[in-house]
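Figure 6 in text form: structure in, sequence out.
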């Protein structure tokens, strides 16, 4: 399974705007969200309505800066299934090449049980 997600970096996507730095380049939190979007795109047609996936582990190296106005694309490729855990290799690229790379693990959950558990406290 494979999925992609893209965006054009806006002021709201920068490290300065997100509070994760003080420069106007793509912020790491937004980069990670883009990677998670790519994993969700990979799963979009594979899960029943009663099942969702939740982020469990993220290991991403943010290697190069991306300026406001540049387009970036994240790609997620399913590497491993271990029970309910799905591990993806993710990469992010812009016109200059590789921006980030890493792994994201998601866990499959029953929607109703998950929401009951988190909302009953």
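Output sequence:
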């Amino acid at each position: 399974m494979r999925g992609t997600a893209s965006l054009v970096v806006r002021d709201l996507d920068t490290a300065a705007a997100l509070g994760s730095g003080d420069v106007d380049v793509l912020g790491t939190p937004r980069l990670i969200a883009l990677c998670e979007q790519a994993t969700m795109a990979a799963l979009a047609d594979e899960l029943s309505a009663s099942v969702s996936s939740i982020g469990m582990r993220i290991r991403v190296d943010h290697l190069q800066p991306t300026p406001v106005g540049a387009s970036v694309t994240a790609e997620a490729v399913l590497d491993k299934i271990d029970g309910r855990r799905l591990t993806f290799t993710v990469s992010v690229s812009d016109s200059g090449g590789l921006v980030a790379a890493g792994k994201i693990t998601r866990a499959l959950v029953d929607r109703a049980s998950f929401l009951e558990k988190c909302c009953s406290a």
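Caption detail: Residues 39 and 76 are 5 Å apart (CA to CA).
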